[in-house]
Design a protein that fits this description.
This protein has about 425 residues and is mainly alpha-helical. Helices cover about 70% and strands about 0% of the residues.
């Protein structure tokens, strides 16, 4: 999912209307609503399939609730329901079942541990996933599968050396699961070209194997990488290929909405897609994007309405840590002390450049300019090229009078307008 980090700069709004003319003309229109209109009407297929599967396993389990062989498939059906609907209660149901299976299984404890760890990762409970997988890896088990998941967990908790060590242990350039992680590692290292190359190699394997879930995952992620590289038309076609396989794929539709907004500056079309998505896939993220679009349109009332809808939805306790990072920026201007407290907790959960730049932002908004500079210089500078990290670094440098560093970041961000969106593009230009 894309972080809509730039929404909450409320102090800069003051009834501004950003017209398309204020963004430099730089592209030819690529979206054609006829390409995807039919998919917008198909929004329940994955849900109906998951629901049918869920009902089947519920009936299987009803006569004997301790039937461990049925717990895993039932948990998997709840995870699929979460993906199809965005209803986080399904993810919590899956967690409870995986825990039960893990504790009572005598023959597949390691398999259930990996499934439970994946559930924790989906909930952003990365340290819990890491600890569970480390315990599993130490025992007799399928060490390759566990090592791959440990790579995922270590990347999320900022233990990059350990992540690479695990990746090296399972090196196999003909293996799909190795290649997608090598792509992630390359992206972390700032080598986007290599990341794309490895993901394209993984796509060849996925397509030759004919496995739909692997193809869907690879199309959407490759679309994201193409977008980061400025290959917007290639990204668009990846999302269309996703929808051809899975017509109700919410991520692909949201990504097309982002293209409509951030590349085409067509806020009407972006909102049309998002409003259709919200009918069947209710996740807080969409309200953030709609709020940003409203800010772009100069519609302050709509912006505040969607921010309120986001806050109300994301406060659901079942989300746990899943929206913590969003709330740091949400409160940065309006309640900086609260943002700072959340940021400190988030760093404990996952000590990565992505969380440290949010900590620096919260420190800056709390008036702790020198502390924010120390955070940037220690944990961000030369450690990430992620645009939002660079933008927050620029804010901190500017507050500390380091104008030369601000200019350097502005140059680095010149090609990131699609990734950061038109509002931040304008704000970067004004730094």
């Amino acid at each position: 999912m894309k972080m809509i980090n730039q929404l909450i700069l409320l102090s800069l709004l003051s009834v501004m209307c950003f017209s398309c003319d204020s963004i430099e003309e730089k592209h030819v229109t690529i979206l054609n609503s006829e390409d995807y209109n039919a998919y917008l009407e198909r929004d329940k297929e994955s849900y109906l399939s998951a629901k049918k599967n869920n009902e089947f396993w519920l009936k299987r389990l009803a006569p004997d609730s301790s039937g461990v062989g049925d717990l895993g498939p039932l948990a998997g059906s709840y995870a699929a329901l979460f993906t199809a609907t965005g209803d986080v209660s399904y993810l919590k149901n899956a967690e409870a079942l995986y825990k039960k299976a893990y504790h009572i299984s005598a023959t597949n404890k390691n398999g259930y541990a990996r499934s439970l760890a994946q559930n924790y990762i989906s909930q952003h409970r990365f340290k819990e996933a890491q600890q569970l997988l480390e315990g599993t890896y130490a025992g007799p088990n399928n060490k390759r599968d566990t090592a791959l998941q440990l790579f995922d967990a270590y990347m999320e908790t900022g233990l990059y050396d350990k992540a690479f060590e695990k990746l090296e242990r399972v090196k196999n350039t003909k293996d799909y699961h190795y290649l997608i992680r090598l792509a992630k590692w390359s992206d972390y290292r700032g080598d986007l070209d290599a990341a794309i190359k490895y993901l394209e190699q993984a796509l060849v394997i996925a397509e030759s194997g004919g496995l739909k879930p692997l193809k869907v995952w690879t199309y959407t992620n490759l679309g994201d990488f193409y977008g980061h590289a400025g290959r917007i038309e290639d990204a668009y076609h990846m999302y269309l290929k996703t929808l051809a396989l899975q017509p109700d794929n919410a991520y692909a539709k949201k990504s097309i909405a982002w293209i409509a907004y951030a590349y085409e500056n067509d806020t009407v079309e972006a909102n049309r897609i998002l409003d259709k998505l919200l009918q069947s896939h209710k996740v807080p993220d969409y309200y953030l994007l709609k709020a940003e679009i409203a800010e772009f349109d100069g519609n302050e009332a709509a912006m505040h309405k969607n921010l309120s809808l986001f806050e109300a939805a994301a406060m659901n306790p079942d989300y746990g840590l899943m929206y913590t990072a969003y709330f740091i920026e949400f409160y940065a201007d309006t309640n900086p002390d609260k943002a700072l407290a959340i940021a400190k907790q988030e760093v404990l959960n996952r000590a990565t450049p992505e969380t440290y730049h949010l900590l620096a932002l919260a420190q800056l908004k709390s008036g702790l300019h020198k502390e924010a500079l120390t955070t940037i210089e220690t944990y961000i500078a030369e450690k990430t090229e992620e645009p939002m990290a660079l933008i927050h670094a620029a804010y901190v440098y500017k507050a500390n009078g380091l104008e030369e560093k601000v200019s350097q970041i502005k140059e680095e961000l010149e090609g990131a307008s699609f990734e950061i969106g038109p509002i931040l593009t304008l704000k970067v230009q004004d730094l």
